[in-house]
Design a protein that fits this description.
By secondary structure, the chain is α/β, with parallel strands linked by helices. Helix content is about 40%, strand content about 20%. Strand 9 and strand 10 form a beta hairpin.
Length: about 575
Amino acid sequence: MKNEMYDELIKKTLNSITEAIIIVDKDSKIVYINQSACNILGLSSDNVIGREVNGTIPNTRLHIVLETGKPEYNRIQKLHDNVIITSRIPIRNEIGEVIGAAAVFRDITTVQKLAEEVTNLREIEAMLSAIIDSTNDAISVADSEGKVVLVNRAYTRLTGLSPKEVIGKLATIDIAEGESVHIKIAKDKRPIYGVRMKVGPLKKEVLVNASPIFVNGEFKGSVGVIHDVSEMIKLVEELEDAKRIIRKIKAKYTFQDIVGKSPKMIVAIDQAKKVAKTPATVLLRGESGTGKELFAHAIHNESDRANAPFISVNCAALPETILESELFGYEEGAFTGAKKGGKIGLIEEANNGTLFLDEIGKMSLKVQSKLLRFLQDREIYRIGGVNPIKLDVRIIAATNMNLEKMVEKGDFLLDLYYRLNVVPIFIPPLRERLEDLEELVHVIIRKLNQEFGRIVEGIDEGALELLRKYHWPGNVRELENVLGRAMINIEYDEKRIMKHHIPPLTFEQVDKLIVQDLDLSSLRLKDVIENAEKAAIKAALKEANGNRERAARSLGISVRNLYYKLKKYGFID
């Protein structure tokens, strides 16, 4: 009896609320619909209970929520002449299995009609505050004089300003940079869209859309919806940084900058000097950090194209679609977001000069195919273009990957491999040319003296012997990073790098340092993981000379994830 009374109480409660509710079981059959839902949909509960929800309820997605188990919040949709806002939630049992789903929705057409009929903005605030507080976008409402009368929770989260700090004050109160849209609407009585400004103490960059509020033809104020675009701007800035990293307009190095007297390096340098005088395509092979880019610069500067452009592209730095548009350019209107007037590609920029394609093995098959077509025909088509563009570009490619195995697996086009492998030059790893180590060390010290403003005169034989015993998986790039850290460890009154200045060279040594930094009296697994993660990030950033993109790649994480961890561990604000 108590259960029946309890069920009846729940049904009466659900029927008395203004939100519409529909509940289905695991077979997508309707098991409950309240009176508000029947009123909005124009249905009778007797005619829908027990029926399949898809086909009974217009525009329903409850059957999809059942399948995916994923909730859908605040979805706005048209229903006949009305507009409703809907949330759909999966219902799970105690072990997490989806056993049904519920939809909670409201006819917001009624809200719009109320706004037209009610003349007191204070009453509108009371009626709409519950609704606008449920939205993720920040909302602010001002009266006819441009004074703030209502803000929602999302507004406070975005601007950092509480309702007490802004309500009753002119709408300029929250603006760090820009002009108040509320004040402007109070003057012009017209809607404003897409206004960029900065708001709040933290100067968050936002995009604002605002509309006037008219009640019975009389202007009563304005409502603004504020979108946070700071994350989007940050991603765009990261992309622009990546673009600046992957392209250089002028080759900086010559063969005089390449250190090497070992037999293998002499062979590589001789090959590079001979091919430099020809227009032949060159494929530089070697491990990461061996100096492939240095060779590309030198080949260009030794060629008859030395005064023409030298464009460097890291094929692993950008996604397929962006790399394609960067290389080949695009016509106006080729895709959403394309610049007005289109954009010239990097291959075109390199016309009569050299295009250096670093990490060619990371290029997608689609872009490989377009590159192969260019190498065959010496012409390109911009994305969205129909007219071929004839170009004279010398290609130098580089990779640390086994292209032959990639061809066997179908990850690299065979025809492109043959087109690129015209003159292969193998650059030996540092461990195979240790006779060059001492000269490399002195060259790097001179370079770092300029960068660091130091006067280090050389290196002790004991420190040099320690470097000779290391296997150098990171090659010359790792050597430069190790010497950079050693110079940081040197006191200003010291003139030479000693053995004790050299940082740990093996993972085992790094592991010991990490453990030494831990407080073993309160050791937890979480602390160990965080300390190891911080040490790894710190080491990766040093190895990459502060280049976050390169550090993220060496750690095997995205740049965005690296930024998150840098903030988490206090490396950046």
